[in-house]
Design a protein that fits this description.
- This protein is an all-alpha fold.
- It is built from three helices and no strands.
- It has one domain.
- Helix 1 packs across helix 2.
Length: 89
């Protein structure tokens, strides 16, 4: 069970990094903010669902949320520096 939690945590970090990367790449400006907003939207939805299911918010959850936010922000910063994948005309 412990290895499953570690693997899902790493997969979450990669997914949030890709989310930030794509949002920063599409916006082509303010990568830090774009990645942070994209991650906050997903995390708030997840926390609201956890509230209704009555999952407790503990220190582990806080560390996961902060790590996912940092990962997404870093992805946004890196995504801005690449040529845009989608051309908006």
């Amino acid at each position: 069970m412990k290895s499953f939690n570690t693997s899902t945590f790493i997969i979450g970090i990669v997914c949030f990094f890709l989310l930030g990367f794509i949002s920063g790449n599409v916006a082509q400006k303010n990568g830090l903010l774009e990645g942070l907003v994209a991650a906050l939207f997903i995390i708030l939805i997840t926390l609201i669902i956890n509230l209704f299911v009555k999952v407790d918010f503990n220190f582990r959850t806080f560390v996961k949320v902060v790590t996912f936010l940092v990962s997404s922000s870093l992805g946004g910063v890196i995504g801005v520096n690449f040529r845009p994948f989608l051309n908006r005309k």
